[in-house]
Amino acid sequence: MLCRLSIRNYALIDHIEWTVDGGWTVLTGETGSGKSILLGALGLVLGARAEAVEVRGGKCIVEAEFKLTPGARQRLGTLDEGGPCILRRSITTSGRSRAYVNDEPVKLQFLKSLAPLLVDLHGQQDGQRLQSAAGLLHAVDALSTEAQEAAATWREAQARWAEAVRERDALEAAGHLPDADADYLRYQLEELGHIDFEDEGLSNIDQRLDALSHAREIKEALQHVHAVLQNEAGALDRLHDAERALEGVASVHPGAAALLERVRSCRIELDDAAREAEQEGDSVDLDPAALARAEADRDRLQRLFDKHRADSLDALHERMTEMQEQLSSAENRDRKLAEWNARIDALRIELDAAGDRVSQHRSTSAEALCAALQEHLAHLKMPAARLHFEWSPTPSPEAAGPCRPTLLFTANAGLAPQPMTKVASGGERSRVMLALKAALSEHLEVPTLILDEIDAGVSGDVAARMADLMAGIARRAQVITISHLPQVAGRADHHFKVSKTEEDGLTTTQLQSLDAEGRVEELAAMLSGSEIGDAARAQARSLMG
C-alpha cells in the first residue's frame, strides 16, 4: 500500500508531501492542473524512463513509502528492513538518474521488477491491455492456480527447447564442410600419413642425396688419402725415419729434442687420419638403388611442399595437423548436430504436452473470467454484453504460451462478438477495463490500484455504478482514482484537489486535502461549473451519502 509520496522539483511541482490512507482516495481538478503529473512522478520511483522529465532547480527527487506484501518482501531480499519500504529516484537536468531502495542504490531494472508487486497503475492509454496478448494472459492466469502452474511448466519447457534450438543454430552457422571437401581432406591426410616425420633421413634428404650421388668420388678420395699416408715410402714411413734420426741426437742437442716432440706429434695425428680415411672410405656405399630411393623421397617431398605451400618438414607436419583438426571438427559437428536435433525433437514432445495442459487450463480460466466480466458489466448497464476469448497458435513456441488470445466483445444481443478494439466505444472499453480490475482484485496480491480516468466516456447512472464497483475494490485493496465525474468523486473515502497557482510568473501545481465542506464545494463545482448554488451543494451532499 502507498503510504506517502514526496515530490520535489518535478515538472509543475515545486514541493508536494502527500500522505495517503487506505481505502479509496480520489484526485480531482481542472484539466491541465497536474493530476497526471502526480502519477508521472510516482512512475519514476517505479522504474519509468526519465528522458522527458522536466527538472526544476537542477535536480528533482521523488520518494515513495510503501507497506509491503509478502511477495514484495521476498522480491526485496536483503534490502527488506522489516518495516515500510522507501523508494527514491533522483534525476538531474543533464538526465543523470539514480535509484534507491531503503537508501541502498539499485539499478533501474530492479525498480521495474518490484513495481508490479506494489502498484497496478491504469493510465489513460491502458485500454490497450485489452488488445495486448501479455495483458490478457496475465488476467486469465490470475484466476486459476492450475493455469499459473501450467504456464510456469510451459515457460521452463519452452526455455529448454529454445536454448537447444539456439545451440543447434549456432552450430549450423559455424559452417558445414561438404562431403567432397571432407573426402579430399581424408585423401590428403592419407597421402601425408605415409611420411615418417621422425625419420632423420628425410630431414637431411639433401645431404643424403649429395653423399649418394658423389659416392665414387668420395670413396676414391678417401682411399687415396689412406694410401698416401700408409703405403710404403708414404708420409708415415718418412716421419718414422725422421723420428728415429732425431732420437739419436736428442740427448745431446736440446733443439733436436724439441723438434722430435713436434715430429712425433705429427706422426700420431697423421696415423689417426689414415685410419679414419680408411674407415670412412669403407663406409661409403656405392648403391644405385639407394640413390634412386633417395631421389624418389626428395621428389615426393618437394611435390608435397609445393602442394601445401610448405618449406620444411615441420611446416608440412603443421599443415597436416591443421587438416586433421578441420576434419575432426567437421565430423564432430555432424555428430553434435544429430545429437542436438534428437534433443530438440524430445524437448518438443515435452513442450507440446505442456502446451496442451496450459491451453486447457487457460481456456477454462478464460471462460470463468468472461463470466465474471459479464456479471460486472450487467451491473454497469451492459446486460447484453458478451465476451469470448479466441486462441491463435503462435508460429513458433513463445515463452508466454503456445497460443495468443484475442478478446472478442459485443454489447448487443444478437450480434456475434468481434475483436474488442474494433467494436467497443470508449465508454464500453472503460467499463470492461474496470470490470476486469474488479475481477482481478479478488485474485491478485496487488495492494494499490491506481485508476487514471478509467471512467472516461461515461456519465450519469453508469458513472454511479462504476463508483459502486470501485468502492467494492477498495474493500480489498487501496484504490487511488483520478476522475472528472462527481458521481465517482463523491463516493471516495478521501478527497484531494489538484490545482495550479501562478506567482511571479511561475506556475506551480498544488495538492490540497479536502474536508467535508471542501468536498461539497468541489463536487458542486464539478456539477455546475463556476457558478455554485445551493442546489448544486445539496446534490453534492447527496452524492457523498
Estimate the strand proportion: 15-25%
User: In this structure, how is the largest beta sheet organized?
Assistant: 6 strands, antiparallel
The CATH superfamily of the domain at 1-118 and 447-459 and 478-514 turns out to be P-loop containing nucleotide triphosphate hydrolases
CATH topology value of the domain at 1-118 and 447-459 and 478-514: Rossmann fold
Strand order of the largest sheet: 2-1-4-5-6-7
Count, helices: 19
Determine the structural class based on helices, strands and strand pairing. alpha/beta
Distance between the termini: 26 Å
User: Mean pLDDT, rounded to whole units?
Assistant: 86
> How many beta-strand runs?
15
Fraction of residues in helices?
55-70%
What would your notes on this structure say?
The protein has 545 residues and is an alpha/beta fold. Among the domains are: 1-118 and 447-459 and 478-514, P-loop containing nucleotide triphosphate hydrolases (Rossmann fold, 3-Layer(aba) Sandwich), CATH 3.40.50; 179-331, no CATH class; 515-545, no CATH class. Helix content is 56%, strand content 19%. The strands form three sheets. The protein has a six-stranded antiparallel β-sheet.
